[in-house]
Amino acid sequence: MLAEAREAPNAVSRQLAQDDPAYSRFGASLRAKPPGSMLTIARGSSDHAAHFMAYLIMARLGRLVTSLPMSLITLYQSQIVCDGLASFGFSQSGQSPDLVAPTRFFTEGGATTAAFVNDPESPLARAAQWVFPLHAGDETSVAATKSFIAQMVAGARLVAAWQDDLVLQAALSGLPGVLSRAAHTDWSAAVEALVQADRLFVVGRGTGLPIALEAALKFKETCAIQAEAFSGAEIQHGPMALIDEGYPLLVFAPRGPAQAGLLSLADEMRLRGARVLLAAPAGTPGCNLPIVETASVELDSISAIQSFYPMVEALARARGFDPDRPRHLAKVTRTQ
Q: 117 by DSSP, 3-state: which?
């Protein structure tokens, strides 16, 4: 897991060096005939990456994107209207039937379908009209790391191509160097704080919420910590009742419109007695987990999760677990 997490910068570099014409053509087709509705098809870490792309689309283009409950197709045989629809499937393996079946259904129904997948010969890739390989290389660790980062980058590339945004494209081109630094940033404060933890809230908002969801998943699968992810707004409702003296919180507060509210929340939680781990740009008051800034505010979450992965791998080992062999889990999950 650690080796693959630290290989992510090279994986991103490989991806960015390929497939520009395909992204450009797809972006041009979306500009020429914008979809009337859009949905993502994914599970687990891939769903979190899809959520990141969806947020960029909604924030930048003002077009709503929903996450498909796959059982609508696989179990309920719902005849979803495909006219004007675009679907985006995200997967590392491209093997799970409940990703393949909806993608095939939408393709056959006349929708625009795309797959962002590490295996370009997989069933998911064959079911889609457009295929965008992740170029992450073999990923044998059960816990996805470099493939997740590659999916976030691929989603941002799609948005940049759709908008023909040269500034975002330039920011993406600089990511490998930033991620190389982020992969070796010291987040050991989190290992020390969480080595005895049995529960945890992970907080984010905006483009930081997808990585909060991803971090919570990794805490569960590698460290056996009951971690829950919440929006910085949502946590101030029911979940607030659980926070008392010593309760651990990891707050992702990268740059952007959501940062001020998240920093305020972190301050409030400290006054409540919570043990706050704050991931933010170096120099931010209260920051103990520094985020390496990228050339775009919208890409800082990618740098943050790059720093998170080595930390959670070390935390798993400190807690007596083998992060390369999580209990009860397999690399490829085939659900219906």
A: strand
What pLDDT band is residue 328 in, cutting at 50, 70 and 90? low
* Token pair for 27: 């972006």
Q: β-strands 226-231, 248-252: how paired?
A: unpaired
**Per residue in 218-239, pLDDT tens?**
999 999 999 999 999 887 666 6
* Contacting residues for 205 by C-beta, under 8 A, at least 6 apart: 231, 232, 233, 258, 261, 262
- Sheet-wide strand order for 248-252: 226-231, 199-204, 248-252, 275-281, 289-291
Q: How far is CA 176 from CA 11, 21, 37, 77, 258, in A?
A: 8, 20, 33, 43, 25
Torsion of the alpha carbons at 326, 327, 330 and 335, rounded to the nearest 10: -130
Half-sphere exposure of 326 (CA within 13 A, CB side): 21
- Contact criterion met (CB below 8 Å) for 301 and 254: yes
